[in-house]
Design brief:
heterodimer; A: 13 helices; disordered N terminus; B: alpha+beta; 4-stranded antiparallel beta sheet; 19 strands; 25% helix; 35% strand
Amino acid sequence: MVSKDLTTQGASAKFDLVIEPGRSFRHYWRDLWQYRELFYFLSWRDILVRYKQTAIGIAWGILRPLLTMIVFTIIFGYLAELPSEGVPYPILVFAAMLPWQFFSSSLTESSNSFITNANMLTKVYFPRLIVPASAVIVNLVDFLISFAILGGLMAWYRFVPDWRIVTLPAFLFLAFIASMGFGLWLATLNVKYRDFRYVVPFLVQFGLYVSPVGFSSSVVPGNWRLLYSLNPMVGIIDGFRWAILGGNSQIYWPGFLLSSTLAVFTFLLAVRYFRNAERKFADII
Amino acid sequence: MGNPIITAENLGKKYLLTHQRREPYTALRDVIAEKAKDLGRNLLRPFTNAPSPVLDPNQEEFWALKDVSFDVYQGDRIGIIGRNGAGKTTLLKILSRITEPTEGRVRIRGRVASLLEVGTGFHPELTGRENIFLNGAILGMSKAEIQKKFDEIVEFSEVEKFIDTPVKRYSSGMYVRLAFAVTAHLEPEILLIDEVLAVGDSKFQKKCLGKMEDVSTREGRTILFVSHNMGAIGRLCDKGMFLDGGLTSGVTGVEEAIRSYTRQGGDNFRTFPDSPLRSLHVRQEGEEIIIEAMFSVPSPIALPCLGIVITDAFGNPVCGTNPVVDPPRVPPESKAEGRIRVVLHQPKLLDGMYRISVWFGDGKEEFFVQRDCLSFEVVGMVKNRQLPAAAVGSVFPSCTWIFE
């Protein structure tokens, strides 16, 4: 009886943590901040692991976008003779390859991230959002490598970007939001339905066809452009081209706004969806 | 005594077990259609407990923990004891926030670190040094904290020479030692440990136990420790909690908890309070296996139908029977309670551990199902030289050789 009384007293004193069913932890975002070092270590692990035991290491990060760019330049630039917004075609393609590579690799890796880290998820607590987020962050390394290649291409073609290049981080942030939104959503679904493992590669392939990577989105007829912008990557790629290609590139602002709103909306929805699901992860993974 | 550092009130955790339906006539198109319907419904809100109007007959509720209440005070070292499936790990998972309870509430004061596995997050491609940092971060240590203790961890692990070698080249002993070393240097206010000492050689186990004992007595840390090793529990813990089928009477002295556990009669005898099947006992007697059960139901039943399935150490079913497929020579009297005794003369089983699952009902309806509820050991049932069970199966055939 005495200990019971003490318990109720203790309740009025401070408890750091209360665990109850259905309680989405109020301190989630504070926890996320506290676990930032784990976030850093997981990203660091993924980067280390990616380039260990590869014969040519970082070169993979160079070869992949470079070869894709060459193929696209030949097909769309030389064979199909599509317009190039007044810049060398390789640069037009590469400016779009940057966000597209980032988006597609992030999507692939983050959507599998809960499954590949299942062991950790059932053995320790941490805000699970860290896992797909670090999978996306890792691709920033590849992004930086690709960006260096772009610099090389520009030097080769003696192409000088104008002031707009400084706005690039904003578009990169938008690409991050889009990758994170779709990645998180697919990752959450993947926990319950492993089928999504097979859906993602298809989505990525399909996305490449419906996104203006190999060609400028100005080839899309005017009255279709808003509809085309329902694909969030259209706005992001246009933004990248606008920032990198400088004065020659025109951006279709209504489409851009639609694309970015959709990307942000998807992200917010995905976070909410994920937060609801997160509590049951350990039981079903 | 002060205020409790952990207070659990009426904690419960329910799992839904889904049984695979095995209907011979289910057409593939039905399966696809049903899946499509489910998928459509669940895609939108997959994790909310969909309020299905009727409970799916293929799903069975299972309470891993029920009405568990206890208080833990600072500096307590509590040994959590119970048979497999008693809810020990579930309890630790709730306390460490890996899974959430279905009902009840826990309040905790202080930082909690859980150690449910040795070397969580270890990556084989990374070196020992890299893994120390990674594993430390996963267990909740800060980078500064790991750096400060790094040398101590390496020394404790006894793998200094290989610290820059990828851990995939480590022997299993080295791997375990390194992983232990990291966890032994954790310094949370509350440490939850699950059976991790079961691996590793005994010398190193002693070293770890010593380190943990040291930390808890010297610095007043609170430890909740799950183990089947009563020796380790008795040595490390000053209090105990005995769990049985998800129920507990709370924190007691450690001797009392160990007594309750041993009184239960090891793993080949079990009681099921308040269920139609009261108790179950399985043992080997000579070349026979004897299973005994006590039952008690509200109204008399003509044939108390006890179904049994024996599985081997690998989880493969070996054999199974019940009094419907193999009726007794003398029909029993209708009874509401009584004893069922089955003697298995065949098959002859090779030496090893076996488990048994039981079903109990009246032949039409099942009152009680418990999978893998007991385990028992078979020794010397087969007198011949024994081939390895993993290669030839666990049944020794009785046969006649003919050479012509």
